[in-house]
Amino acid sequence: MKNILILGMILALAGCGGGTRSAHRGGAAQLYTPTAKGPIRSACLASDRKARSNHLCGCIQAVADRNLSRSDQSRAVRFYSNPQAAQDIRQSGRSGDKSFWKAYSTYAREAERICT
Hints:
This protein is mainly α and about 120 residues long. The protein is built from six helices and two strands. It has a two-stranded antiparallel ribbon. The longest helix is centred in the C-terminal third of the chain and has 21 residues, at about 95-115. Mean pLDDT is about 80; it is low at about 1-30.
């Protein structure tokens, strides 16, 4: 009986996981955060935001690489130095601006989900 109890405890502890590769954020384990180099990472690092770091800006760039074209990334770079440009595009009635804003909004939501 004692051996069965010990075996049960070992199996329970083994099921808990562990290791040092996972980072706990908000109760969820994140095993891998992507990172990349590009124009958004550079603009992020050059910005005056307190939370900027190589890790965060690289993650934001990796998400941009998956969600935004190179031309959309170039357009988004301006938002770091001129936040009003984002508002102008968001409120624009032009179809090109609406299309960009839809893609940018999707990118921003995913970056927030993955990189924070």
